Amino acid sequence: MSDETVNYGLRARSPDLLDTVPGLGKLKSACPKYIEKAEFAQKTARDFAKNEIAPRVLEIDQKCAADPAYFDWELWETANAAKLNITPIPEKMGGLGWSALDNAMLVEELTSACMGCASNITFNTFGLLGAMVECKTDIVLKIISQMVDAQRRSKPLFWSWAITEPSAGTDVEDEEAMATMRPSTHAKKIEGGYLVNGTKCFITNGSLAHYVIATIPADSAHPKESMATFFIPTTTKGFSVGRIERKCGQKASQTAELFFKDVFVPEENVWEPPGKGLRHTREILSITRGFIGIGGLGIARGALERGIRYVSRKKVKNHRLIDEEWVQMVIADMIKDINTVRCAGINFAMALDAYHVWKMFDSVPVKAGLKIVPEKILLGKSLQALAEKSMFSHAGSEFKKKFVSDEQIETFVYYGSLVKVAGTDLAVNITSRVADMVGLEGLSDQYGIEKSFRDAKVTQIYEGSNQANRIDIVKHALSKMGIKNLGVPDENKP
Ligand SMILES: Cc1cc2nc3c(=O)[nH]c(=O)nc-3n(C[C@H](O)[C@H](O)[C@H](O)COP(=O)(O)OP(=O)(O)OC[C@H]3O[C@@H](n4cnc5c(N)ncnc54)[C@H](O)[C@@H]3O)c2cc1C
Q1: pLDDT at 474 over 90
Q2: Ligand 1: does its nearest atom lie under 6 Å from the Cβ of 370?
Q3: Is the CB of 351 inside a 6 Å radius of any atom of ligand 1?
Q4: pTM above the 0.90 mark?
Q5: Is the beta carbon of 457 within 6 A of some atom in ligand 1?
Q6: Per-residue pLDDT tens for 49-84?
Q7: Which of 117, 173, 247, 293 could form a disulfide with 420 if both were Cys (CB 3.0 to 4.6 A apart)?
Q8: How far is CA 236 from the centre of its chain?
Q9: How far apart are CA 77 and CA 156, in angstroms?
Q10: In the CATH scheme, what is the homologous superfamily, with its name and number, of domain 159-275?
Q11: Where are the beta strands (DSSP E) in 150-304?
């Protein structure tokens, strides 16, 4: 039996978006372009994952296991040539102009082949998202023009988002925990800017980054009240990279320790002043958590695809393993779970398009600006210089606040957490069930099933552990029911 005879996952006819979520047909009649573009994104991403990522994942995983600093530049260059690392940037500015729904298609397809490789291609957009949620016009324009320029010259341009510290992971993402955390980083106010010291750890792309966006408190005794967001070029004196972690999974994506020793950050690189850092983090999480959930969904789908291929070929006695009824029941359950989470992921992505930062691209001023202003000017220095003037610089932030309120951000953290927990628990559950179904050979490194299991486990821990995500879910849901101030009072504790 050849691979092509099992039409599932990467080997299915594409696009099959409407086959798996038929309810989108109604939306397709109302907004044909929106759904057609998502179908195009799905096909593009699936072809890329099948032809470029899948054939080399096991080799990349082994090379990274031997050397955590190994990076597959050939794969990155192919993705860069297809602009898959700058998908949300408007077409007029050199990107693909992909919606959140299109990006959900991209993430599911690429992660179904390899979560680590997918991170290297898509997570870099986090830098852009960091700028988008900030929404200061000059920063957005500067970052977009840098990313497009690098893409055109086929030069890597990596960003890292540094929140976690050796003494604080969950604490830096949660308001209550942050109030009592003991930060190991500190930003001291000096003339013209801040002097930053301390260590961040487990930072995705930290070893490759050209820029680090770091949340650091200005007052260690009051981290919540003084958390700020700094934009730090990694060429800055005093910045250095430590260990690249040897992780159980997602080995293709580098995770590193970062050191700051008297790193000077000028005032213009303070993205959020002391006191505003947590809000900025929450806003980023309100977008990224859901995409990690969709990544979990992709891992699950990829594992099931590998499992189905195996049981279709494996002979027991005189029949295929897939002919056993118990195997069919296990597969039916997994398809049911995968499709349920896919619907949740698609719902989340479409909500980002309807109510979050992607809505900006649909707004009249942005649409009109993109239509009227020539590409050269959009990416040119003169527009940036004009945007730097504080009146224009804040216009973007003010404009965005009109339709993405603080309350909406917390609602999206909630939606994102639902999808994150559902998708990443699904990933661990399905990869484990596929291994059970396949048996001993599922644990061998030749089918990619044990790799899926290792990759899946990581997703439950980052982007807020699933426990931290559950706390966000329950707090938000119960507060809507009027139940607040959760927790056993100190006097009732044993
Ligand atoms: C592959 C990978 C990539 C990563 N990339 C990045 C990155 O790019 N940038 C970045 O900043 N970080 C990154 N991280 C770090 C990640 O976000 C943290 O690991 C995560 O937030 C959990 O923090 P922690 O490991 O310090 O666990 P801790 O916060 O120490 O928590 C330990 C355990 O206690 C639980 N716990 C903690 N607080 C509570 C609470 N209040 N209530 C209930 N349970 C609680 C947690 O759920 C967990 O089970 C990455 C991690 C990995 C593994």
Answers
A1: yes
A2: no
A3: no
A4: yes
A5: no
A6: 999 999 999 999 999 999 999 999 999 999 999 999
A7: 293
A8: 26
A9: 9
A10: Butyryl-CoA Dehydrogenase, subunit A, domain 2 (2.40.110.10)
A11: 159-162, 186-190, 193-204, 211-217, 227-233, 239-244, 255-266, 270-272
